[in-house]
Amino acid sequence: MKKEIFPRAFFGFCVGVTIERFITLLISFGIGQGEFQPVMPFLLDKLPSVRMGALVQTVWCGMIGVTFAEAAMVFELEHWSTLRQYLVHILVTGAVYLPFVTLCYWHVTLGTVLYLMMNILITYGITYFVCYKLDQKSVAEINAELERRNHEQY
């Protein structure tokens, strides 16, 4: 697992930056008034230049990607329950994702934070439910195969 830390971090950073660029493009189409918006206006208001804003936004989004990539290692801990894995993952990623996203893309208000938290909780809830049901099906199939083999032996 230790050998995977740096490759995961590099991959996560690249994915985070790529997603950030796509989001920036989509937002530019929406609010850009015909021009590319490399930095979100809310972030640009807090920084001295577009160049500095682009750097900060890119690094922050890359770090979000690193966090998601590294936190995904909890899903490889087989001695942990699925619920524990999801809870640790959502706490770690949420602790990084919420502040960065609110500072990059939105004015920080209670409504913004609640909206983001609701989206995260709904996404994790759906994902957990689907994975739980798939795991139940896999366990049932394994048990049926074990039962079949047990009957063949006797």
Number of strands: 0
**In what range is the share of β-strand residues?**
under 5%
Unreliable sequence segments: none
Outline type: elongated
Largest sheet: none
How would you explain this protein's 3D organization?
- This protein has 154 residues and is an all-alpha fold.
- The chain has 5 helices and no strands.
- It has helices at 5-31, 41-44, 50-71, 82-105, 110-153.
- The longest helix has 44 residues, at 110-153.
Layout of secondary structure:
Elements lengths: L4 H27 L9 H4 L5 H22 L10 H24 L4 H44 L1
Summary keywords:
elongated; mainly alpha; 154 residues; single chain
Briefly, what is this?
The protein is mainly α. 79% of the residues lie in helices and 0% in strands.
